[in-house]
Amino acid sequence: MAVAQTPAPPRERRAPRLPGRAPRRPGDPRGPRRLWPYLLIAPAVAGGVLLLLYPMLRAAVISFQRFRMGELVRGGAAFIGLDNYRELLAAEEFWAVVARTFAWTGINVVLIMGISTAVALMLLRLGRRMRVALMSVLALVWATPVIAATTIFQWLFQSELGVVNWALTSLGFDSFRGYSWFADGTAMFGVLVVLVVWQSVPFAALTLYAGLTTIPAELYESARIDGGTGRQVFTKVTFPILRPLFALVTSLEIIWVFKCFPQIWVLSQGGPDDATTTLPVYAFKIARVLHRYDLGSAVAMLTVVILAVALVGNLRRMLRQEGAES
């Protein structure tokens, strides 16, 4: 006689386990661990909001108010809308300063990128000892405080005891005997260009050199075998590969030069005859000399807008090129 068999209960179906991922159990500490990176960057974010975002928002508010010495003391600034911006945009002096700022930025950035590229290429071809020596010098220049470097340039270009005038006179240029660099607008502009370029080249050159070391040597060998000259190798091999890096360094240098203030203020205070007054210096002079804090804030906000528009266009072009290449 056959014995009836009881059917086995159906097995519970479980979700498939993902490879390399252990099931999460109650009390698993990975949840708090995920918050740890955010806790680490929270002080930096808070500091950025406090030191950067709040002053910018405060300046934006003041630019829409009547805010002068009286309002600074007693408070109660009145809202006047776009009157400060209308006053600025109608002034010929403002547009002259804008044109001078663009010329200042263009001259400096072109010189910085040209000299930095040449220095980076030279570092790539130097021997180990010379390369280390040159990189050490660049690092020392980069580490020099801005005010200290500016003071050194004051000594170098001093009219009577300056090294520059002494050297030029020794070479036979007698017209530079006792020449006052700080009394001539064009000469003062040139001195500031030399100072800013000297301070900016180390960062750009070392950054570009780091990018050059990532290019495979086989590409250079193939280009030389095909008969490519040094210029052709740079334009056909080096620059296309490092185009995003060049765009990034150029953007950073535009920011550095456009907002440059300490060097100009310490050496010339925007003079002589406003020959070295750029937008940041112009905003400070209006607020400090005229006590027009509202108008100075408007200049500062327009400076931010101009700089943002220029950088956004450059960064969008860089991202578009990266997308086309990928």
Q: What is the CATH class of the largest domain?
A: Mainly Alpha
Number of domains: 2
Report how far apart the termini are.
76 Å
Alpha carbon gyration radius: 30 Å
* Alpha-beta classification: mainly alpha
In order across it, which strands form the biggest sheet? 1-2
Predict the CATH topology of the largest domain: MetI-like fold
Subcellular location: Cell membrane
Protein name: Sugar ABC transporter permease
Membrane topology: Multi-pass membrane protein
Family: Belongs to the binding-protein-dependent transport system permease family.
Structure description:
The protein has a two-stranded antiparallel ribbon. It has 14 helices and two strands; from the N terminus they run αβαβαααααααααααα. The protein folds into two domains: 56-90 and 278-326, no CATH class; 103-273, MetI-like (MetI-like fold). It is mostly helical. The chain has helices at residues 30-62, 69-74, 83-89, 92-125, 128-143, 146-156, 163-170, 185-212, 217-225, 230-241, 243-258, 262-267, 279-289, 293-325, and strands spanning 65-66, 78-79.
